[in-house]
Design a protein that fits this description.
alpha+beta; 5-stranded mixed β-sheet
Length: about 425
Amino acid sequence: MSEVIVDRTTAPEIREFGDLVMPEVKKSVLPNGIPLYELDHGSQEVCCLTCVWRGGIAETARKALPALVLSMMREGTGVHSGEEIADIIEYNGAKLFVSADSHFSMLKLYTLNSRAAEVLPLLPEMILDPVFPEKNFEVLREKAAKNEEIRLAKVETQASIAINRMVMGENHPLAAAETPEQIRAYSRDDLVEWHKKVFPPVVSETGESQLTLFLAGHITPGIERLIQDLFGHMPVKKSEPLPFNIVPFDCAGAGEERVVVDGALQSAVRMFIPAIDRRHPDYIVLRLLVMALGGYFGSRLMSNIREDKGYTYGINSYLLGYPEGGVVGITSSTDNSTVDALIEETIGEIRRLSTGDFLPGEMTRLKQHAMSVLASSLDSPFDIMDYYINALVAFIPPRYFEEQVAAVRSLTPQRLADVARMHLSLDRLNIAVAGA
């Protein structure tokens, strides 16, 4: 057997990404009008069903309620107790996740194909017939209140609450915060009311549905029949789905707020700039610009403020595209003594973006990172389907993936500089600091 000699003095060749294409999913409508998206992809005998409903944090004045109701739906139905549901899921190797977003609520179940018939029937039970046992409710309600107490004690939470009020508006549905005492005041009737409002299937005369299903993995004919039987014959009310409560952000202008947190060993810094939303033609390039600023480990903020100045272990920037409006966010934590220096350096880096001084090496790193992020969306059938779920939840326009690929490939320093001058105005910068 001959020995293979490896030349370790020469770096391996770095290849450009080839064409990245988001696979199409199959869309059908069940007999009762509920839409179903399917992606039959992958060789492993496993699948994931995601149920997505209209109705999230913005649609209720009780901000912790959507997540609490989702958690309680697994605590017992008219057929199975919460303990029985947990045992069935665990014994069959399945995983159940719930989450509440700004305008949607989500339930996601992973299961082996061989065990699907044992676990998938639990979902219609939880959707149509949860019993919300009082004892379980009291335990989960207290857990939610305790978690909020812990969260509110953190400087990061205090800074985020302050900056959201500044940029979104004092009384905006997405900026409002609840106290632990308000959570403890929830009643079981509150859960029942929210469940009736959001979860029973509703389909309008024009085919608009309150519930959307997403099925991904190795989808066999048996799995398809099971989904049809379980969800296609659900009783559906002919009515209009829950309307979204979309209130445009109302930023009063530039500002700064300092929140004193006694005993804090460090300060949390949040710097937000109101921005364009996803419907604007410059949105994707602005996202890439913000990525260059602080969206990956080799970004400008990380190189300057973390590596060079040593003010923080981490600083990052991002662009959020809500239907209410866009926000450029910069988040970091630092020693109380270096807060002002960190802010000053960050403002300097924002200013520098408009000069267009993007060197070839930086452009290469930025494009490679952006393409890597896009490529990661194609790793598995579940990642691919998550893209389509996020497209619904985040109001992402059609062909967004392809437009991102095209924007990365055609990106130039001049285009970045132009977008920086148009959309990163320091005249609208809001700063919130929480610490000692």
